[in-house]
Amino acid sequence: MHALPVAVVCVGARADSGDSLGFASTVGTVAVTGRGVLTASIGNPGLMAAVALVLRGLFGIASERLGPMLTAKPSETKEAPA
User: Is-above-0.85 flag for pTM?
Assistant: First the structure.
């Protein structure tokens, strides 16, 4: 039920997904955890959303770097004459 207000805010903003992603993540985290944005603890919704976005970026970078390595064909090795 909490996802509906977040979706309405994102659609109502009429912004690109990159522009409203941080805001939507923070609002979604506030809705799910029930904590205020001014909570002074490790459970701060803004901090949790920021960490999630940073991890998302790191996994994206890792995927871009490791993807071509995993799909590359093995190079042919030349055998030394006996």
Answer: no
Mean pLDDT of all residues in 31-38 = 82
Q: How far is CA 78 from CA 72, 75, 81, in A?
A: 18, 10, 9
Measured between alpha carbons, how far is 38 from 58 in angstroms, rounded to an integer?
27
HSE-CB of 61 using CA atoms within 13 angstroms: 6
Q: Cβ contacts of residue 37 below 8 Å, gap of 6+?
A: 26, 30, 44, 45, 46
Distance CA(69)–CA(82), nearest Å, equals 32
